[in-house]
Amino acid sequence: MTTTQMTYTILAEPTGAATPPPGPPPPYDPEHRVSAEAAGEDALRVRVLWEGQVLADSTRPLLVHEDGLPVRYYLPPEDVRLDLLSPSDTRTTCPYKGVAAYWSLPEAPDIAWAYHEPLAAVALIKDHLCFIGPAADPA
């Protein structure tokens, strides 16, 4: 039996994390739901591109489901071109996931982030990197 692997390609863009919106962060909501799960062995391939350059290519993504947000794909560091990224000084705090650390490209600040000590609900995502951006049109 042959299985078809779905490929999801993200056209990465800077997060804007270094310039958070004005005002205090939203209050903690105990009803807010967040969870992480593995996509399943070779069930999903996630590629991340920046101006045609492959930044990541993984068949081992973790999926984070969070109220009010689209599914986020967290990729193992082994599947990310860390040689192209440099650590940023930017840190943000999510009341549901923990403190995020960021990575940048020379021309794209804070293009990826990870949680080194995530909260219990999303412990699986420890040290996995996430990128945001629109999905590319399927080929």
Automatic annotation (TrEMBL):
Residue span(s) of domain DUF427: 46-132
Protein name: DUF427 domain-containing protein
Location of the region described as Disordered in the Swiss-Prot/TrEMBL record: 1-33
Transmembrane segments: none
Sequence ranges of Pro residues compositional bias: 19-28
InterPro entries: DUF427 (IPR007361), DUF427_sf (IPR038694)
Lineage: Bacteria, Bacillati, Actinomycetota, Actinomycetes, Kitasatosporales
PANTHER family in the cross-refs: CONSERVED PROTEIN, DUF427 DOMAIN PROTEIN (AFU_ORTHOLOGUE AFUA_3G02220)
